[in-house]
Amino acid sequence: MKRKFHWKIIILSLVVLTGAFILVDQVLVSRWEARLARQAHWQEKADLQAEVTYLRRLLFEALVGTLVLAAGGSYLLAVRFTKPVQELAEGAMALAKGDLNYRLPVRGDDELAYLAVAFNRMSERLQQQIELAEWEKQRLQTILASMAEGLIAVDRLGRIMLINRAACKMFGVEAKDVSGRTVLSLVRHPEVEELIRKTVRLKEVQKSEIRLAGEKEIFLRLTAAPLGQDAHHQGAVVLMQDITELRKLEQLRTEFVANVSHELRTPLTSIRGFVETLLDGAMEDRVLTERFLTIIQSEAERLQRLIDDLLSLSRIEAPRAEVVRQPVDVAEKVQKVVEILQPLAENKGLGLLQEIQQPLPPAAMSGDLLEQVLLNLIDNAIKYTPAGSVSVRVWAEANQIRVEVADTGIGIPPESLPRLFERFYRVDKARSRDLGGTGLGLSIVKHILERYGQTIEVKSELGKGSVFSFTLPVYS
Fold this sequence. Notes:
The protein is α+β, with helices and mostly antiparallel strands and 476 residues long. It contains 13 helices and twelve strands.
């Protein structure tokens, strides 16, 4: 392409010079012919014709020399001015193809050199802007991917333009499968569509909470913000926070407060009733007074046990509570708890047996908390075993110590097993209160073991008894 351009200039120059030669030739010949006519009378026509031929040859030689010089000059001129222009065109094509590292050579200090410098600066600036835009894009993608909340960007028609990883996980979809779909096809709730329309129309942040029914009930807190100012590019960004666990915690808190209030009110109501009866004159009857005071004492002790269990549960569940891991002799703790509860078992005519494997490695745990676990489990077994025996077995297995508390009691219905370790849950509420239970014992056991990364298992057959078992980490 460069050479064709150069030759065009050269040919044009030759044409111009050739035309000038023909014009000069015609003018000179015409003049010599006129002179020949005037001088025919004194000189021979042949001599004049020879002179004309000589002049023509001389003019032709001059023309040839001039053409050679003109061609060379034209070529040099073409190379001098067209090469930088061609390089500029090639640079523009390279940039268009994405080669941001392309730079033009700078020669001299004329206008073309200044143009090359400007082109190189433009290329550098463009490269910097594109690299910055790419970095911003990667940073945005990283932020969106690391967000715990779901995020969806939609246009003014509610079509999905962008969705992050958390939102995809929330609805079990892939980003490529939902792009361009309406948000209503993803979040099947009419309030979401209305929230987006209201946000786009009012150009204000809107908030709402929705409940999505399905295999798993989900509660979402939605925050929608307007996106874009141009009427043709308006939309909204919707932030979706999964508050399902928060709602469950609020429900548990409400139930817990209601249960605590009920558990506290029951003994307090009883105490208050008997005290009022005594103040109304029953104190004159010594036998009645002693019976009432005995009931008041029993209810006060029950109230004390409830408060103690609540405080224990609060300490165990505290997020900053220290997890003590000290060597504990499990056999010694079992024997100590059995001795404490032996009178209670004997009063009911129950056998309280223990079977401990020896030697037994020490457990990595707090000794006081292990005692609390054993007390709750063995005491529970004694309370709900009307006849027969309660046995405690301890043995080592695979770098763990397993403890098992079995009874021949009334057993637990299968439908009650999933809720057995909930706070204040009782299989038989009347029997539990009569036996002095607070409904917190098994919940305390569960939370203590969970602090040490352990779980408790229960197997039960209605009318035949129950077996509670758990493992303890070995101290090393």
